[in-house]
Amino acid sequence: MSLESLYQEVILDHAENPHNYGEMDAPHLSYRLRNPTCGDDVTVHLVLDDEQRVAAIRFTGDGCSISQASASMMMDVVEGKHVDEVHAMIARFREMLVEGVEPDASLGDLEALQGVRKFPTRVRCATLSWHALEALLKEQAGA
Ligand code: ZN
């Protein structure tokens, strides 16, 4: 199996069985973003604890495999992390997709999305949930 098809499999696996998918019961923050070019629609739901750590995170919405897989992978890496670390991850993910910076282990399965960089119109799909998370944190910090 080529590396490319292995990556493809990781992406499809997340898209078909997204992690932390669904509504959240507890009082939480949420932020919805849409990508009209592709039709992706993602809402990130988040609970922060008193120490500004991600106590719980989920997402809802629908869209292409890339947008769904990226959101699912994001759930895995940010859960339990401090807000400062989450911001650092958002920056690293963006660097990987926009500048082609080699990802480190902290990005987990997100490494599989590296190939998306070759398709500029799809970069928006991959970053949609991340933009939603960033906007949510910004809104929360300002509140
Ligand atoms: Zn898309």
Task: Tell me what you see in this structure.
The protein starts with a helix and ends with a helix. The protein has helices spanning 3-16, 65-78, 83-99, 120-142, and strands at residues 29-35, 40-48, 54-62. Strands 1-2-3 form a 3-stranded antiparallel beta sheet, with helices on one face. The chain is globular and about 45 Å long. The protein is α+β, with helices and mostly antiparallel strands and 143 residues long. Helix 2 (65-78) crosses helix 4 (120-142) and helix 3 (83-99) packs antiparallel against helix 4. The longest helix has 23 residues, at 120-142. The mean pLDDT is 93. The chain is built from 4 helices and 3 strands, in the order H-E-E-E-H-H-H. Residues 35, 38, 40, 63-64, 66-67, 125 line the site of zinc ion (ZN). Zinc ion binds next to helix 2.
Rg, Å, rounded: 14 Å
- Give a quick account of the main beta sheet: strands, pairing sense, barrel closure: 3 strands, antiparallel
Q: How many helices in DSSP terms?
A: 4
Q: Total strand count, please? A: 3
> What is the end-to-end distance?
49 Å
- What class, by secondary structure content? alpha+beta
Overall 3D geometry? Answer: globular
Cofactors, ions and other ligands in the entry: zinc ion
How much of the sequence is in beta strands? 15-25%
* Overall pLDDT confidence: 93
Q: List SSEs in N-to-C order.
A: HEEEHHH
**Order of adjacent strands in the largest pleated sheet:** 1-2-3
Indicate the low-confidence ranges by residue numbers.
none
